[in-house]
Specification:
- This protein is mainly alpha-helical and about 120 residues long.
- Strands 1-2 form a two-stranded antiparallel sheet.
- Strand 1 and strand 2 form a beta hairpin.
- Helix 1 packs across helix 2 and helix 2 packs across helix 3.
- The longest helix is centred in the last third of the chain and has 14 residues.
Length: about 120
């Protein structure tokens, strides 16, 4: 018999799925609409909980629609990734070392892109 914990999704997977559904919709969505677009066996209350957590994190905004809310993303996928990178950077007090190690692990192509972004006009 499998334990319920063994069947849980990895952390962040549901949030990522909900965000993907919101980005694909291109318009504010209610929890019910998000649930339908996911096509997964998720309860509407689960989707509502995920959307509420994303709202609390500042990742989505919501506006009143009927008795509930319609949600829309604050940023596109790339903006959200950049925000996560900033969050991780802010967690360490030694920013210089973190940045140095990050840059040291970049691929040559990523390093080239970063140089172009940091040295405009050269």
């Amino acid at each position: 018999m499998t334990d319920a914990k063994d069947q849980r999704r990895p952390a962040g997977e549901l949030e990522a799925s909900v965000m993907a559904a919101l980005w694909a919709a291109g318009a504010p969505q209610t929890p019910g609409q998000v649930q339908l677009s996911l096509g997964a066996a998720l309860a509407r209350t689960t989707v509502t909980t995920i959307l509420t957590r994303l709202h609390d994190k500042g990742v989505v905004e919501r506006r009143r629609q009927g008795r509930g809310y319609a949600y829309h993303p604050v940023q596109d996928a790339q903006g959200l990734t950049a925000r996560r990178m900033h969050t991780e950077l802010d967690r360490d007090s030694d920013r210089e070392t973190v940045l140095a190690r990050f840059v040291a692990q970049l691929s040559p192509d990523d390093e080239r892109v970063l140089r172009v972004l940091l040295e405009p006009g050269e």
